[in-house]
UniProtKB/TrEMBL annotation, chain A:
GO terms for molecular function: FAD binding; oxidoreductase activity. Keywords: FAD, Flavoprotein, Oxidoreductase. InterPro entries: CO_DH_flav_C, CO_DH_flav_C_dom_sf, Diverse_Substr_Oxidored, FAD-bd_PCMH, FAD-bd_PCMH-like_sf, FAD-bd_PCMH_sub1, FAD-bd_PCMH_sub2, Mopterin_DH_FAD-bd. This is Carbon monoxide dehydrogenase. It holds the Pfam family FAD_binding_5. It comes from the Bacteria.
Automatic annotation (TrEMBL), chain B:
PANTHER family: OXIDOREDUCTASE WITH IRON-SULFUR SUBUNIT. Residues 2-78 form the 2Fe-2S ferredoxin-type domain. This is Carbon monoxide dehydrogenase. SUPFAM superfamilies: 2Fe-2S ferredoxin-like, CO dehydrogenase ISP C-domain like. One of its GO terms (molecular function) is metal ion binding. Keywords: 2Fe-2S, Iron, Iron-sulfur, Metal-binding, Oxidoreductase. Coiled coil: none annotated.
Length: 266, 163
């Protein structure tokens, strides 16, 4: 790892000031992506601004018909939250399936979405549940936020503060993990909202990160059963193809995961 | 450089570290506690698992400065004098190791999972799922799983006896 200077931010204002005062800073949250990247010398921030101890960025609470989760809340906290388990069980299950227990004790919601790994789990939940992301500058819808592989709408000096997840009528997540890394080879989050609309968001498979399947959404809005999506396949052209699986293999996995997610949503 | 102070296995320690020093290096090189191992560069093997404020974390994926003020327990802190922790004893009893390289991390993860689920509440499927972040190149996991199950049940018995 190259040299760096560590700062512990005491508050959101303090973090913004520290970001503004540094040469080439990076926000440090759980460190479960950033530190491995720095160890490989693929990132060399001059300064690390640790936001993990900022109280305002922690916690899970009910916010009307939505659940709001602080950006520095860990995957283990989301997975273990009685509120999330009761209101959006698919989200608790998703968080409980990220990586392994030690990664879940450190890794955070904000770090995961800011990184926008094409194989990360959370982006699919944000898109399917139509979540709103609050930052130090604005509020963004999930679809505005995720702009491409490892890319988001965030400015360099913008911090994710929290994410508000509307409570869906039914929702669930199904993931086919890479057996070595535990990241998604394909993951599908399905949500039926109170107004009858259905959103299907796919992660792990797309070349540009998370995407929706309009065809599956229409089929499920008419008939919310696994059979409704069994015959629908996403176009393999825009999908990832690597040593772990070809794009055709991933396209098939997406259909299988969509069926499983609908079955789990009940 | 940064000043850090933390409790390691119940002992207050402090010192100057480079900001980029990983917790595992602080533990191994400045505390000479070499039971915590480094098995990979990619945060995947779990040989380095320690407890920070009661939770299992990968000490190779945490800066020492991030653990400032924390309560750290390593494999050296588990036994009570000459009396092995029940999980350590079970690994010996059930032959839960061969070369032993992964063992400190396995045991720290096992203690963490027993703490979270409560003694006696672990079945084989749960143990295997919970061990996703700990890689063993020797045993094939069979006896590791057996040892953790036995320790968990044994600890439930001890808890009952104490009540
Ligand atoms: C072995 C292993 C297995 C894993 N498996 C999975 C998996 O199965 N599924 C999955 O989804 N993920 C997986 N991960 C990644 C894990 O979920 C990370 O926790 C997550 O991607 C990053 O969160 P973090 O809090 O650790 O962020 P960090 O590593 O601290 O930061 C990541 C990036 O986000 C930026 N950032 C952090 N917080 C904020 C914020 N509040 N506002 C703006 N920018 C911010 C940082 O500057 C950095 O660029 C795995 C990681 C490991 C090591
Ligand atoms: S050394 Fe920490 S996970 Fe491998
Ligand atoms: S006993 Fe050798 S790696 Fe596990």
């Amino acid at each position: 790892m190259y040299e760096t200077t560590y700062h512990r931010a005491e508050s959101v204002e303090n973090a913004v000031a520290l970001l503004g005062g540094a040469d080439d800073p990076k926000i440090l949250s759980g460190g479960q992506t950033l530190l491995p990247t720095m160890k490989q010398r693929l990132a060399a921030p001059s300064d690390l601004i640790d936001v993990s101890r900022i109280a305002d960025m922690h916690g899970i609470c009910e916010d009307g018909n939505a659940i709001s989760i602080g950006a520095a809340t860990t995957h283990a906290e989301v997975a273990g939250s009685d509120l999330v388990k009761a209101r959006i069980p698919g989200l608790a299950k998703l968080a409980g399936g990220i990586g392994d227990p030690a990664v879940r004790h450190m890794g955070t919601l904000g770090g995961s979405i800011a990184n926008n790994d094409p194989a990360a789990d959370y982006p699919s939940a944000l898109v399917a549940l139509n979540a709103t992301i609050s930052t130090t500058k604005r509020k963004l819808s999930a679809e505005e936020f995720f702009t491409g592989m490892f890319e988001t709408a965030l400015d360099e000096d913008e911090i994710v503060l929290s994410v508000s997840f509307p409570v869906a009528e039914k929702s669930a997540y199904a993931k086919y993990p890479n057996p070595a890394s535990r990241y998604a080879m394909a993951g599908v989050f399905v949500a039926r909202h109170g107004d009858g609309t259905v959103r299907v968001a796919v992660t792990g498979a797309g070349q540009n990160g998370v995407f929706r399947s309009a065809e599956m959404e229409a089929a499920l809005a008419a008939n919310f059963t696994p059979e409704a999506v069994a015959g629908i396949s996403v176009d393999a052209d825009g999908l990832l193809s690597d040593i772990h699986g070809s794009n055709a293999y991933r396209a098939n996995l997406v259909t299988v995961m969509a069926k499983r997610a609908v079955a789990a949503a009940g | 450089m940064a000043h850090v102070s933390m409790s390691v296995n119940g002992k207050k320690v402090s010192g100057q570290v480079e900001d980029r020093t990983l917790l595992v290096n602080f533990i191994r090189e400045t505390r000479n506690l070499t039971g915590t191992h480094v098995g990979c560069d990619t945060s995947q093997c779990g040989a380095c698992v320690v407890h920070v404020n009661g939770k299992a974390v990968k000490s190779c994926t945490l800066l020492a400065v991030q653990a400032d003020g924390a309560d750290v327990v390593t494999i050296e802190g588990l036994a009570n004098g000459a009396n092995l922790h029940p999980v350590q004893a079970a690994f010996r009893e059930h032959h839960g190791l061969q070369c032993g390289f992964c063992t400190p991390g396995m045991i720290m993860s096992a203690v963490d999972m027993i703490n979270r689920y409560g003694p006696g509440n672990l079945d084989e499927k749960t143990i295997r799922h919970e061990l996703e972040g700990n890689i063993c190149r020797c045993t094939g996991y069979q006896n590791i799983v057996k040892a953790i199950k036995a320790a968990s049940d044994e600890m439930a018995g001890m808890q009952q006896a104490a009540e």
